[in-house]
């Protein structure tokens, strides 16, 4: 068995909790390297600069690929001067992953507002920027639990758009793309030979035969039936309100949901601390903790590292299957 290649842990927004989570993640016991400015790490952090992701460091010491930022980090107060460097770190991590120098990347949280103000960042978030760096490949966002059984894995087919726009944005082509990406990723990255996918309806009670909406009967059911004919194992469209109790989750490996909150409310209720954000469809492994910058507690040393540790572990597991 080959030795695990390290995962790149990008620094994210340095004024958030990311830098203080990096040394806590050493508890994982698997190789990773922090990509960012070591001056942003908590005082007293034992770290050593490395030239490449695989360079050895002493046990208990954080390996750091240095990327200097123009300004210090003040907890809870993002500095626009640092925004371009945050973007550069992400691009550098992708380059390392694409060349095979690292097993994948795990991204600490960014502030979309800070990046837009300080760097003119034109992407809704990490996921869209990573897809762009990979050659504008089609991707899907998955949130995966690590602490509940049966697992809760959800894919929002539409993501960061107003609820009023969901019905128009949720097209047959978009749902089919999400199904194909999810099925392929479950096989390649999660080791499931025949993925079982559950498709949530858009409307309450999955439309209830047209009484509460017609999208399910008009195009969702025919699409699902056609893809079943190609060999996909699909259930739905299903009422979303009965999809996430344990007995229901045991009947599928991942659920595709119509919109952001339909997907994220269940997993954040079931496994808030252990949820992992995974980008499906990329030519490299990418995970992220399922939380934000937490400016309100940044610098206090109280941020919970459970989600970033889960994200790094999942990145290693996915990388081992590629």
Alpha-beta content class: alpha/beta
Oligomer: single chain
- Please, what is the CATH homologous superfamily of the largest domain? Isopropylmalate Dehydrogenase
Please give the alpha-carbon distance between the first and last residues: 13 Å
Tally of DSSP β-strands: 12
Secondary-structure element order, N to C: EHEEEHEHHEEHHEHEHEHEEH
Question: What does this molecule look like?
Answer:
The protein is of the alpha/beta class and about 325 residues long. The protein has two domains: about 1-135 and about 285-320, Isopropylmalate Dehydrogenase (3-Layer(aba) Sandwich), CATH 3.40.718; about 140-280, Isopropylmalate Dehydrogenase, CATH 3.40.718. Helices cover about 35% and strands about 15% of the residues. The chain is built from ten helices and twelve strands. It has helices spanning about 20-25, 85-100, 110-120, 125-135, 165-170, 170-190, 215-230, 245-250, 260-270, 305-320, and strands at about 5-10, 30-35, 45-50, 60-65, 105, 140-145, 155, 195-200, 235-240, 255, 275-280, 285-290. It has a twelve-stranded mixed beta sheet, sandwiched between helices. It starts with 6 loop residues before the first strand and ends with a helix. One of its GO terms (biological process) is pyridoxal phosphate biosynthetic process. Homodimer. Its cofactor is Zn(2+); Mg(2+); Co(2+). Catalyzes the NAD(P)-dependent oxidation of 4-(phosphooxy)-L-threonine (HTP) into 2-amino-3-oxo-4-(phosphooxy)butyric acid which spontaneously decarboxylates to form 3-amino-2-oxopropyl phosphate (AHAP).
């Amino acid at each position: 068995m080959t030795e695990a290649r390290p995962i790149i842990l990008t620094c994210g927004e340095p004024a958030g909790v990311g830098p203080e989570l990096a040394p806590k993640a050493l508890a994982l016991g698997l190789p990773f390297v922090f990509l960012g400015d070591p001056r942003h790490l908590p005082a007293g952090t034992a770290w050593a600069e490395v030239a490449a992701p695989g360079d050895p460091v002493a046990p208990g010491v954080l390996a750091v690929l240095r990327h200097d930022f123009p300004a210090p980090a003040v907890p809870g107060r993002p500095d626009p001067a640092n925004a371009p460097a945050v973007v550069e770190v992400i691009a550098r991590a992708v380059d390392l992953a694409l060349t095979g120098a690292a097993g994948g990347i795990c991204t600490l949280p960014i502030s979309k507002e800070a990046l837009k103000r300080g760097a003119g960042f034109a992407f809704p978030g990490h996921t869209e920027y990573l897809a762009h760096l990979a050659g504008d490949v089609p991707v899907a966002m998955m949130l995966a639990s690590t602490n509940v059984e049966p697992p809760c894995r959800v894919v929002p087919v539409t993501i960061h758009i107003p609820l009023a726009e969901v019905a128009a944005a949720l097209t047959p082509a978009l749902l089919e793309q999400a199904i194909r990406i999810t099925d392929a990723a479950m096989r390649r990255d999660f080791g499931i030979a025949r993925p079982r996918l559950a498709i949530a309806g858009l409307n309450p009670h999955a439309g209830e035969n047209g009484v509460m909406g017609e999208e399910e009967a008009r195009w969702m059911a025919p699409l699902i039936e056609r893809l079943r004919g190609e060999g996909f194992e699909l259930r739905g469209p299903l009422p979303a309100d009965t999809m996430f109790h344990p007995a229901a989750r045991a009947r599928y490996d991942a659920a595709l949901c119509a919109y952001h909150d339909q997907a994220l409310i269940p997993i954040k209720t079931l496994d808030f601390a252990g949820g992992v954000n995974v980008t499906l469809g990329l030519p490299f492994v990418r995970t992220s903790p399922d939380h934000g910058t937490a400016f309100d507690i940044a610098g206090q040393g109280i941020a919970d590292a459970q989600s970033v540790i889960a994200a790094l572990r999942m990145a290693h597991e996915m990388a081992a299957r590629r």
